[in-house]
Each structure stands twice: as structure tokens, then as C-alpha cells.
Design goal:
About 10% of the residues lie in helices and about 55% in strands. With about 170 residues, it is mainly beta. Strands 1, 2, 3, 4, 5, 6, 7, 8 and 9 form a nine-stranded antiparallel β-sheet that branches. It is elongated, with a radius of gyration of 21 Å.
Length: about 170
């Protein structure tokens, strides 16, 4: 009788009721932006994927995706080729993003983020992900040197890319 009272009053929940909040991802966009001596650049890679993440659960609170480096487009053939050369796309054709321990914080999220690019892995704990109407987004501010790369220099030093880069992750929700 006491156990039934707990169930009805909400002090205890039976485990057979589904109470998991889910997050369904259907598309990903990755942007790499920065500055050079000739101006701003923006290279992106958008691809569809379908994945469901269960928040506040041990079921599947992880999101992994491989990013094909050859699919980045800078809207300029020369810049696209330079980016692919800089990130060694032929030697390291894929980068990987792994988001784990996703927790809701108000309308936003926090997670653990691992970003594998070239032969380096960058790890971030309590990485913030911000919610907009149709997507969740996160931003990494880093330097080419953080991932063991050199910022490109072209035309005998006339064109120099700054070491600072910004990587934006956009996870589009259903």
C-alpha cells in the first residue's frame, strides 16, 4: 500500500514509464572562419545525418560523427585547395567530433567534446552548446598551432593567414 502511494504522489517513479528527453539531429554544418591579409574567409561542410540522443539517460547520451575534410568548400577553388592542403586532407581524410555527457542547462546544453583533427585530439569538458530555433551550436576558438599546423602563407608572404581560427558546429534538430 505504501509503495502504491509513492507512485501516485510522484515520490517514486516506476522504471517502465519513458521519461527520457530526446534530441534528434538531422543535419550538421561545420564552419571554419578566420582572417588573412586579404580579408575574411569562411569554409564550410554541410551533411545530413540522422541520430537520436537521449538526455538525462544512460541509453545513448553520445553523438559521434566523421567529417570528410575534402568536402569543405570555401566558395573559391584556390582557397578550398589551400585549406585542404593546410589540414592535410589527403593524409588525414576525416576528422571526428564526439559529444558525450550531454546535459540540459535551461534551454541550452553542456557536454564533453572531443575533436580529432589531423593526428591531434582536443578535449573540452563542460563545453557549452547554445540553442536557437532549429539548431544547437557550439564554437571553438583555437589556433592552427594548437593542432600542429602552420597557417598558410602564399605569394612569397604577400598573403598570410592569421593563426587564429574559429570552428562553429551547428547541429540541426527535428
Amino acid at each position: 500500500m505504501g509503495l502504491a502511494t509513492f507512485f501516485f504522489l510522484g515520490s517514486a517513479k516506476p522504471t517502465f514509464f519513458a521519461d527520457d528527453a530526446t534530441l534528434v539531429i538531422n543535419k550538421i554544418k561545420i564552419e571554419i572562419t578566420g582572417l588573412s591579409t586579404v580579408g575574411h574567409y569562411n569554409c564550410s561542410n554541410t551533411f545530413t545525418t540522422k541520430d537520436t540522443i537521449f538526455l538525462n539517460s544512460n541509453k545513448k547520451n553520445i553523438f559521434n560523427t566523421a567529417i570528410k575534410m575534402a568536402n569543405f568548400d570555401c566558395r573559391n577553388k584556390i582557397m578550398t585547395k589551400d585549406l585542404q592542403g593546410t589540414v592535410k586532407a589527403t593524409e588525414f581524410p576525416n576528422s571526428t567530433v564526439s559529444i558525450t555527457d550531454i546535459k540540459q542547462c535551461g534551454k541550452n546544453y553542456k557536454c564533453s567534446l572531443s575533436f580529432f583533427i589531423t593526428d591531434k585530439t582536443l578535449k573540452y569538458k563542460d563545453f557549452p552548446l547554445y540553442t536557437t530555433n532549429d539548431r544547437i551550436q557550439g564554437t571553438l576558438n583555437l589556433k592552427f598551432s594548437d593542432i600542429g599546423l602552420k597557417a598558410p602563407v602564399k605569394m612569397a608572404g604577400l598573403i598570410k593567414v592569421k593563426d587564429d581560427i574559429v570552428i562553429n558546429f551547428y547541429l540541426y534538430k527535428d
